[in-house]
Here is the input.
Amino acid sequence: MEFLSRKSIHTNLDLFRIFFIVSLCLHWGSTTQKRRRTNFPEETPEGDNMADYDSYQKAGAVPLFLPSPTNITVHEGELAVLKCRIQNIGPKTVVWRKADDEFPLTIGKEVFAPEEGMQVDYKMISFTESQWDLQIKNVKQRHEGTYECQISAREIYTQYVYLVVLEPRVYEQGLEINGTFIVDKYKMIHLICNATGAVKAPEDVDWFHQGNRIHTSNPKWSGRTHILKHIPIPGRSYISDLIIERSTMADSGDYICRSSDLTVKSVTVHILDSNKPDPPKRGTKPEITPEMNNLVSAAVQVECSKPSLILVLILLSMWR
Here is the structure.
């Protein structure tokens, strides 16, 4: 009887161990599934960030739209960015749609728009905040209207963003010259012809001096003249630099920048010969330098130290 009771005790202990192990495995599996279903950051935070991480994991947190612009105005052809920042989104899905359109433009990060140029700019700002901006490249007039940033859950949360598309920007066509207009002799002349801002930038720019085109191979300019070209924005911008080293007095005069579409702009460059002394003005006495004073004093002392021959002869003639 004692043997049977001991055997039953061992059996009960074995059953208890098995039950405990099975319960532990089930609990671990359910916890892992929850973590997989939750949109957590890849790395687990440490230290002070644990509080934010714990609050992010709280079930039932209500999504909240954070303040962002709800009226966007752009010109046709530009990039339109419709902002949508959300707090406590958790595993919920963000959907962008146009208010008068039945079908969504985006669901999460996936784009379902019938045209190219739309995308979602997604960023995880913190453990509780995320960014779901809708970007429309090369925006057109047809894109104007009201857009909805929606959070799909048991209740649908919506933020409205209104997009206004204006006519394309109009750029005034013309040239502008900047640089050094007054320089000292032998110094560098640097002129900049800027065609940025034109509706269509010129294909090329030529430089002229006193009506003659500047060729860097010309003996007058060779070895000291450089013409540089920059195209910061293809089709919209063109910049040409004229650099003349070791300037001479002959380099003064009118310089013209002429574009390939025959638009011209001119400036006048003055060369100063600062090493040449200024001529004396009329009606002014010449300046007496200390060296000249010393020379005159020495001459007077020499003349007064010996008798004047003329004065002696005159006195002798009168005495007689």
Notes: The chain has a mean pLDDT of 75. The first strand starts at residue 64 and ends at 65. Residues 64-166 form a domain with the Immunoglobulin-like fold (CATH 2.60.40.10). Residues 255 and 267 are 5 Å apart (CA to CA).
